[in-house]
Sequence to fold (151 residues):
Amino acid sequence: MASSPFHGIFSSLGSPEWDQKAAAATAVKLTTEESAPSRQSGIGQIAVDIYEQDSYYIVRAPLAGVKLGDLDIEVDEKVLTIRGRRSVPDAVARDQYYLQECFWGEFSRSITLPCVIDPKRVKATFNRDSILKILVPKEEKVKVIRISEGG
Fold:
């Protein structure tokens, strides 16, 4: 099987279709150390979609229950980090839950892209459906022109 930048993330789903899609994906690599949820520390993780369109890498994250003021997007070299807080809408005692799958509280997700990110060129939108969309311009490739000696 071909090496994939998503190896270890999608391959755990056990679907050959996912593996094929991951192998065909771009060289976007998700960090594992920084993005793994840590229940002990109380920091959660958000789900993201990452894709290419035209000259951008696009990161999309559904963030129901999060307000724009509770979001922070940080760029450091090749790493894009989304941090925020999802507040519990109602105070419910722990012993009243039958099932609790939703994460409430602080979250963080770091994504390593294959190029250095210019923070001044990153654009982000947060729509009324609570979908965060971050547009990261791909690096501009420098064309090499050979100059030959003579005429």
About this structure: The radius of gyration is 19 Å. The first strand starts at residue 29 and ends at 30. The chain has two domains: 1-28, 31-137. Residues 1-40 have pLDDT under 50 and may be disordered.
